Amino acid sequence: MLQKENEISVLIENSRLLSPNGMNEFIRKLSAYYEVYAPIKGEKLVVFEKVENPQDIAWDYETTQISPKKFLHKPFEILFSFEDGGKIINENKDVVEKSQILLGLHPCDVRAIEILDKVFTKRYEDPYYMKRRKNSIIIALTCSDAHEACYCTSFGTGPRIDSGFDLLITTLGGNYLVEIGSARGREILSRYADALSTDSSILMEYHRLKNAKLEIIENKISSKMDTEDIAELLEQNINHPLWENLKEECLACGSCTIVCPTCYCFTIIDKVDLTLKSGERQRVWDSCMLLEFAEVALGVNFRSERAARIKQRVYHKLYSFEHQYYIRGCVGCGRCIRFCLKKIDPRKIIAELRGEPIEQ
Ligand code: SF4
Ligand code: SF4
Fold first, then answer.
1. For a designed S-S bond to 158, which of 1, 107, 190, 192 qualifies (C-beta 3.0 to 4.6 A apart)?
2. Which ligand is nearest to the CA of 152?
3. Among 220, 253, 273, which residue terminates a domain?
4. Which domain covers residue 178, as residue numbers?
């Protein structure tokens, strides 16, 4: 009983209610001190972009095509330039100095950033990623709906979230319930926001509404991936005929990896001028689904077959990731399904390996 009362008082103490005007004013003030990025309504898609006007924010978006990982692990960046035959100049030129706020991230994208944190710090700390990461404030957003491709509940990566953010916003009845997740979140909220209410009974009512909203979304995510004993399942099915069949479907376009919030592969390109005395080193996103990805010296390619590349992608996400980083490499965001021209679906791949009927 006492424990429950303590939990409620912590919940209330960490909650504020903002009106629509209060939220717009909060974001305007933040924009004066930070680069603020959020899901913005475009002509066809909602895209994470710099906020010019808080009213452009798509509070009820499903998932974006490209995830907010692009602000931490850039699609393209110049790591450094060199001149005079080797003197390094402009190192980290593309790394932001001004702190950035990543606002409106759904729980799956917050969890994906936690996975990237492990990837970029486990063996060697990646200075480019980490500098951006330390300069980033995460303001998460409770989902308002779920797309039929979402399966976050299979991995426990959504739609509920209780850590990994500085602030968490839930839109409810025209107002905004804001929950504090870190000291940094508390500071920006107390400094730049005018709360509509801190009254405990009103806040409790908003938490009740938030729970009801989450239950509706959870019930909507009916399609799941059965992840139990998935490592054993994959070990036993390395030569399953499904992989050869998928080869006929897959276009090897790489879209599934580009949109995935946990894919992190990149290639390094050295551009050197004709005198060989100056140039720059670039880092560019790469994809294990592309033919050239596994090509090594003398033109040998150890994944020249499309079937081998599809298998690599599925096994890395659901099997070897756990050995490398002690975590699964998928957050169930569904982007790889939504944006695959052939609608190749990891849920169906696992169901087929289990010999279960496949929903069409
Ligand atoms: S997006 Fe689809 S077609 Fe393209 S590589 Fe991925 S699985 Fe294959
Ligand atoms: S594998 Fe697909 S569902 Fe899983 S995190 Fe990547 S894009 Fe999302």
1. 107
2. 2
3. 220
4. 2-220
